[in-house]
Design brief:
The protein has nine helices and eight strands. By secondary structure, it is an alpha/beta fold. The protein has an eight-stranded parallel sheet with strand order 5-4-3-2-1-8-7-6. The longest helix has 25 residues. 44% of the residues are buried. The C terminus is likely disordered.
């Protein structure tokens, strides 16, 4: 027998991988034709604005003041330092400010591997491990952050670990945290393809934060696979690449709706974990992020693309509730 007769041959009628992806309900590839999304927020809107790295009550005050001064509607603010980095009094003030303004407040449920004694996160190939929850004790600590946030009235937490998301969803289903508590996925958990997006949606995620270097074609493929709102940095901090993509806002909204347009800052210091020693810097950065949102809004208006924006307190926003004990 000749050697070539023993080599397996590909059957001409075998289903191609791309056909298989389509049968799974996933796009066969990136959608370079950039189809217009017909999906919307519950109120019918295409987009909302998010200001990240709003690290405490003083930062939120600055965001709200600048939003009023610059006529920018800020729908959601998010924090990165973690629930455990806020005192009870700070949490209550944070919640009161957000609730009064009808703004969603999303706090990070920490810690993660990069913040403890993990040596791997400092290794050349270990950076991807930093956002993971390391061990069961740390998983318990993350979930304690979730429960504490809920007890103070917070209704949205950031998660950066698949296991933490699954545990959160089970606690929510079991009544340990409120049924309206949302799981906002952190950009530190890479949702870089439609398959990952669908898995996170099935595990109970509420919104998906995509890597800020994805092309519009890649984003369009993810949008085709899931209905969840997408969060996307149109300006990313240097730690995430420092991309400034404000001019893509009209097309981003068109292909990715419903989308939270998220304004980070290039050329800004990393302030995580924040505290009073960094408060003046954190407040100044918060004000500039709102100014960036004003720039984005004006670019959108000049583009001529007519997109519907949510009002404050719109359906689907996890605006904080009055603080009350949570019972299982």
């Amino acid at each position: 027998m000749m050697m070539e007769d023993r080599v397996p041959r590909r059957s001409s009628d075998r289903m191609s991988i791309r056909d298989g992806l389509e049968r799974m309900g996933l796009p066969a590839g990136d959608l370079h034709e950039l189809p217009t999304s017909e999906k919307r927020f519950p109120d019918g809107a295409h987009y909302r604005f998010e200001i990240p790295s709003t690290e405490g009550p003083r930062c939120l005050e600055a965001v709200l003041e600048e939003a009023d001064r610059l006529d920018v509607v800020v729908h959601r603010v998010s924090q990165g330092s973690g629930v455990f980095m806020l005192t009870d009094a700070e949490l209550d003030e944070f919640v009161a400010l957000a609730a009064a303004a009808n703004v969603e407040l999303s706090l990070f449920a920490r810690p993660n591997a990069g913040w403890d004694a993990s040596a791997t996160t400092w290794a050349p190939a270990g950076g991807a491990f930093a956002a993971s929850v390391r061990g069961q004790d740390q998983l318990a600590a993350v979930l304690e952050d979730v429960v504490r946030a809920a007890e103070h009235g917070v209704r949205s937490v950031l998660l950066a670990d698949v296991g933490a998301l699954d545990a959160f969803s089970r606690l929510r289903a079991g009544g340990v945290v409120p049924a309206d508590m949302q799981a906002k996925m952190s950009v530190m958990l890479p949702t870089a393809n439609a398959g990952t997006a669908r898995v996170l949606a099935e595990l109970g995620a509420s919104t998906l934060n995509l890597p800020p270097d994805l092309s519009l074609a890649q984003i369009a493929a993810i949008r085709a696979a899931v209905d969840l709102p997408i969060d996307f940095y149109v300006e990313a901090p240097d730690t995430l690449g420092g991309f400034v993509r404000l001019h893509e806002i009209p097309e981003l909204i068109r292909v990715a709706a419903p989308v939270y347009v998220k304004f980070g800052l290039r050329n800004a210091p990393d302030i995580y974990p924040s505290g009073t020693h960094l408060e003046q810097t954190a407040v100044a950065l918060s004000r500039e992020r709102v100014r960036r949102a004003r720039l984005g809004l004006e670019l959108l208006e000049r583009s001529g693309y007519e997109a519907r924006r949510s009002e404050l307190g719109a359906a689907g926003l996890a605006v904080p509730a009055a603080a009350a004990p949570v019972t299982a």
